[in-house]
Amino acid sequence: MALRKIVTGEDPLLRKTSKPVEVFDEKLWILLDDMAETMYRNEGVGLAAVQVGILRRVVVIDVGDGKIELINPIIIKTRGRQEDSEGCLSFPNEYGLVERPNFVTVKAQDRNGVDQEYSGSGLLARAFCHEIDHLDGIIFKDHIREDEPEIPRRRRRRFDHSPR
Ligand code: ZN
After folding, report:
1. Cβ(21)–Cβ(28) under 8 Å?
2. One of 131, 146, 148, 150 is an active-site residue; which one?
3. Does residue 152 have a pLDDT over 80?
4. 117 noted as active-site residue
5. 106: helix, coil or strand?
6. Residue 157 has pLDDT above 70, yes or no
7. pTM of full prediction above 0.85
8. How far is the CA of 25 from the centre of ligand 1 (A)?
9. For a surface tag, which of 7, 111, 125, 136 has the fewest beta carbons within 10 Å of its beta carbon?
10. What separation in Å is there between the alpha carbon of 89 and the centre of ligand 1?
11. What's the gap in Å between 140 CA and the centre of ligand 1?
12. Domains of the chain, start order
């Protein structure tokens, strides 16, 4: 495994739409392993491939309950609402209150191309939404309302950046 460099700031790559994965080969497995290592090393809870410069629909998530790998993920069900502060490994030291569904079901393929379904609430639901947004060039800041008051420092919680 190897650490990959995280794309940050206003890099135009973060605004691009990622392409579906069609080949489930060793190159994909290396990418997944490298993404996981990069996520853990940076104390993140999720990472999308575009954040390491690869425009493919690949996501890794671990909110503390074990690693989930999502290939070509689609959100198929949402329920409820939650609001909490969010940040992003690609935007260090930037945070905002973001409303997300409180319960999310995702359909995706695993690293072998087999269909899987995952459901999560709370932080995991937030992670699904945040990371899948990345695949369509959407960043968390797009969801912050202009009139939002600044979040007090004690309430700031990094999201795909160290929430624990
Ligand atoms: Zn992010």
Report:
1. yes
2. 131
3. no
4. no
5. strand
6. no
7. yes
8. 25
9. 136
10. 6
11. 7
12. 12-155 (3.90.45.10)
